[in-house]
């Protein structure tokens, strides 16, 4: 049974809807580190119990954040999707997936047809998959009444490649062709309480999603950071970034900007509850998790 987390930031409601959990070894997360398990041991106290399983694997999650703000329903990142041919790429559980994501979304109070806006922090296969679904032999927009607000430079980069990745062909181009896309800038304001924040590096047009309402703030970090364990060794990374140096700079900037502030950090691949604070910890950082509404100061 997939788990959910729900919290309020001012007048904004956020709900995590999980699609898949992938236990990941410290060695895979930190391929360039000579002692990845030492980092894991050092971080164990705050990784447990939510983000570490009994085998010592860090739990990676693929999920959407549903935002209810200013009379709108917004879905941030749309996971892997069903029926996608991922034979040549992706991970276990991705290829021709048959998961209950749409039912989970509806149970969380956000049936696909009720969604007003879809945002993708970037156009990778685990963030844009449910942009489309397979109906009668073709890909159609899953969120039939939504505007898909795609960052212009992100779309232009991937669609301009000679051989774009499968996700572009089966999950992004069909929504463009259906007329459901508005290309927006990387600092676009979606509504009074929700806006995009440029964080290029992992991909050329990667964005974070910022939320601010009634004196409270949050940031959905996308893949600027893949695992909370990176707080303990911010120079380290799993082998997933398109532009390694830019991604590293974006990650350090994110930590620098939000550590020891009241801005709630919502992870995109952090295991549920995936809500917490960045805190300075010696020469690095840690991630202090909380469940439910943020503890008020
Ligand atoms: Zn990702």
Task: Please explain how this structure is put together.
With 297 residues, the protein is an alpha+beta fold. It has a single domain, classed as Metallo-beta-lactamase, Chain A. 20% of the residues lie in helices and 31% in strands. The protein is built from six helices and 16 strands. It has helices at 26-29, 36-47, 101-107, 152-159, 166-177, 244-258, and strands at residues 4-9, 12-24, 58-69, 72-76, 117-119, 132-135, 138-141, 147-151, 181-184, 189-191, 194-198, 207-213, 216-220, 264-266, 275-281, 284-289. The strands form three sheets. It has a seven-stranded mixed sheet. Strands 10-11-12-13-14-15-16 form a seven-stranded mixed sheet. Strands 6-7 form a two-stranded antiparallel ribbon. Strand 15 and strand 16 form a beta hairpin. The longest helix is centred in the last third of the chain and has 15 residues, at 244-258. The chain is globular. The mean pLDDT is 95. It binds zinc ion (ZN). The site of zinc ion (ZN) has 5 residues, from loops. The site of zinc ion has 5 residues, from loops.
């Amino acid at each position: 049974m997939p788990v959910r987390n729900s919290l309020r930031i001012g007048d904004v409601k956020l709900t995590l809807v999980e699609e898949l959990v992938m236990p990941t070894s410290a060695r895979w997360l930190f391929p360039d580190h000579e002692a990845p398990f030492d980092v894991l041991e050092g971080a164990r106290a705050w990784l447990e119990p939510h983000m570490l399983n009994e085998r010592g694997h860090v739990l990676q999650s693929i999920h959407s954040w549903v935002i209810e703000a200013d009379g709108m329903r917004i879905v941030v990142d749309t996971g892997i999707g069903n029926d996608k041919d991922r034979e040549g790429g992706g991970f276990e559980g991705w290829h021709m997936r048959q998961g209950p994501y749409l039912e989970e979304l509806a149970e969380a109070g956000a049936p696909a047809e009720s969604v007003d806006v879809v945002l993708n922090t970037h156009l990778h296969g685990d963030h844009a998959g449910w942009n489309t679904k397979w109906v009668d032999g073709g890909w159609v927009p899953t969120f039939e009444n939504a505007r898909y607000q795609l960052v212009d430079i992100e779309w232009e980069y991937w669609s301009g490649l000679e051989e774009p990745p499968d996700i572009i062909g089966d999950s992004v181009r069909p929504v463009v062709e259906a007329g459901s896309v508005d290309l927006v800038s990387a600092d676009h304001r979606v509504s009074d309480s929700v806006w995009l924040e440029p964080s290029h590096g992992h991909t050329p047009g990667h964005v974070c999603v910022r939320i601010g309402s009634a004196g409270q703030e949050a940031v959905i970090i996308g893949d600027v950071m893949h695992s909370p364990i990176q707080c303990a060794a911010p120079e380290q990374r799993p082998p997933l970034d398109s532009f390694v140096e830019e991604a590293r700079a974006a990650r350090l900037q994110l930590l620098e900007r939000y550590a020891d502030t009241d801005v709630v950090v919502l992870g995109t691949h952090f295991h549920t509850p995936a809500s917490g604070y960045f805190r300075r910890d010696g020469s690095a950082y840690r991630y202090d998790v909380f469940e439910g509404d943020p503890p008020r100061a």
